[in-house]
UniProtKB/TrEMBL annotation:
<dbReference type="Pfam" id="PF14244">
    <property type="entry name" value="Retrotran_gag_3"/>
</dbReference>
<feature type="domain" description="Retrotransposon Copia-like N-terminal">
    <location>
        <begin position="1"/>
        <end position="31"/>
    </location>
</feature>
<protein>
    <recommendedName>
        <fullName>Retrotransposon Copia-like N-terminal domain-containing protein</fullName>
    </recommendedName>
</protein>
<dbReference type="InterPro" id="IPR029472">
    <property type="entry name" value="Copia-like_N"/>
</dbReference>
Length: 130
């Protein structure tokens, strides 16, 4: 739960690099069982599911292992853990405001500060227009 945004970003990049992001974002849906691509979809879905299950704690994995698809698992995890964490946002903002260069090089100082800004950005949500 505490590192969901980092985990999500890492998994998203890995899945995109393997051209498998569609299995978790819903853009590659399960074909009907009579489709010639059905068995291939099942095989790749199982592979993506396995990647997800092996990237989370065993306690968490045991609660989602019987899900039908990688998409269901991804959605479940997103619903559980992607809610804005007000405490974490406060901690990050406080870390940013109190971060001091002191004896650090400019590179080290700025790299850490940028990582805090980037982490804070993962918690930011943009309103949607309807």
């Amino acid at each position: 739960g505490d590192n969901y945004s980092t985990w999500f970003r890492s998994m998203q990049m890995a899945l995109r690099a393997k051209n498998k992001l569609g299995f978790v974002d819903g853009s590659i849906s399960k074909p009907v069982s009579t489709s010639p691509t059905f068995h291939q979809w099942v095989r790749v879905n199982d592979m993506v599911t396995s990647w997800i299950l092996h990237s989370i704690t065993s306690d968490l994995a045991s609660s989602i292992i019987y899900s039908e698809s990688a998409y269901e698992i991804w959605t479940d995890l997103k619903e559980r853990f992607s809610q804005p964490n007000v405490t974490k946002i406060f901690e990050i903002k406080q870390a940013i405001s109190t971060w001091k260069q002191e004896n650090l090089s400019v590179t080290t100082y700025f790299t850490h500060l940028k990582s805090l800004w980037d982490e804070l950005a993962t918690y930011s949500t943009f309103p949607t227009c309807t």
